[in-house]
Amino acid sequence: MIRFTDVVVRYPNGTVGLDGIDLTIRDGEFVVVVGLSGAGKSTLVRTINGLVPVTSGELAVGESRVDGAGKRALRDLRARVGMIFQSFNLVTRTTVLKNVLVGRLHSTPTLLTLLGVARKADVEIAFQALERVGIVEKAYTRASQLSGGQQQRVAIARVLAQQPEVILADEPVASLDPPTANLVMRDLQRINRELGITTIVNLHFLDLARAYGQRIIGMRGGRIVFDGPPEEADDAVFAQIYGRSLTADDILPDTPVELGPTAT
Amino acid sequence: MTAPVAVRPPKPRPALGMWSLLAASVVITIVAGSAIDFDLLPLFSDTTRGWFIVSQFFAPDWSYLGRTVAPLLDTLAIAVVATAFGCVLALGAAMLASRITTRNGAIYRTSKAVLSVLRSLPDVVWGMLFVAFVGVGALAGMLALVAFNVGIIAKLTAETIDAVDPGPLEAADAAGANSVQRARVAVVPQILPNFASYSLYVFELNVRASVVLGFVGAGGIGTQIAVELARFNYDNLSAIIVVLFVVVFAIDQISGVLRRRLAS
């Protein structure tokens, strides 16, 4: 369980990222966070693994507190909370397998890492992760030679190799074309269902949110303005989140969902 | 249809700063030239004095070639060993001298300061210092080159580290890696081609520098040049110079080809 209690994030330049968030996410949920750029959805996700420090309030992932955690405690927390990024964040000059093995670092002795030695058990976990996202044949290919969708799958395999309790995904499909975006979202959904890993995804596109979210959280100005199942998130709700009516730009083509009349 | 009349911008004033800088550098050059009584005349009037030396230079004593092999190999050995030690030490020093890999401000600033001290002394001065410390011989030359190499390679590599793609670093952080692991898996693969290229470049410098170092008693072909010069054996000297020219040229070419390959 992830619990936010009156969490405020204020950046050094004075910008308020989160403005008093109270939120509870239960184990195994698939949560989609939507909102305009600057609404605080990226900040929300990044406070959960401590990439963005909490200014005030309480934030707990399971038994461990994120606010005020020291370096060691943060590393232990991050071992349990995997993250996927918009720009994949792979080391493009090395192989897919080595990238996936980054997910094993949290339980690898530093000396072995320095020597570039991977333990057999870790390699096995990495291969299983690659098999789960269906890209195992690329294990010894350089990451730079893969397409965007394939790179994001490698990033998902890297997270799986961590064997995490929570997966955070910060705009995971924003750099992908519509069909590939759907494939990646389907992978995330399948992993959530098969392994029961709590998943929190930031999305820009409303229809993807409605298609894949089990629970939708709408953010605006650092506050939560909607929290409910996708059936309740109609166009009026989205207009409220976005502060304007929907246009075709908010919808990703080729998404297998019914769209409201104002959306077409 | 007439386009709306936009006001054309006035021509910007000539960049005065640029011209005054150019004028200042011309003035400084003239002042500096007069300070050392710069005069090209001796180049034409005094050449007859050294003509017999020049004529001996154009008649190299080829029988002397055999005796250059051993000291030349010494010189190359000094360059190879110094480059090897220098680049390993420099990689570690570069990690300490980049904000990306060293988040502790004090360590970062100290490392930068140490590196600029290393660079502030030319290789020959290092050579004289180490001859004083460890006595005449190849060890002094090698230590001098190592000191000089660490300064150069670490500076260039640290600047390359500053410019790496931060994405993989963020991913390693989010996966619970510690700083050393992060540097090893996310930074090293990104900088390796540049680092190898700097090391090759410094090897080229070392071959030439180790010749000069021989003058101050640090062993190798340089010592032999000093000896032959002191004995006025200009025909032997010119044989050495021809050999040096061929060897240095060959090494530069090979290293250049390797470095171009690394860049792609």
Outline the fold blueprint.
The complex is a heterodimer of chains A (264) and B (264).
Chain A: E1 2-10, E2 16-25, E3 30-34, H1 41-48, E4 56-61, E5 64-65, H2 71-80, E6 81-84, H3 96-101, H4 110-115, H5 120-132, H6 148-161, E7 166-169, H7 178-195, E8 198-202, H8 206-212, E9 215-220, E10 223-228, H9 235-242
Parallel strand pairs in A: 3-8, 3-9, 6-7, 7-8
Antiparallel strand pairs in A: 1-2, 1-4, 4-5, 9-10
Helix pairs in contact in A: 5-6, 6-7
Chain B: H1 16-35, H2 41-45, H3 51-57, H4 69-96, H5 105-120, H6 123-134, H7 138-162, H8 166-174, H9 179-215, H10 221-230, H11 234-263
Query: What class, by secondary structure content of chain A?
Result: alpha/beta
Number of strands of chain A: 10
Order of helices and strands of chain A: EEEHEEHEHHHHEHEHEEH
Strand proportion of chain A, as a percent range, falls in: 15-25%
Q: Which architecture of chain A per CATH?
A: 3-Layer(aba) Sandwich
**Rg of chain B from C-alpha positions?**
26 Å
Largest sheet of chain A: 6 strands, mixed
CATH superfamily of chain A: P-loop containing nucleotide triphosphate hydrolases
* N-to-C series of helices and strands of chain B: HHHHHHHHHHH
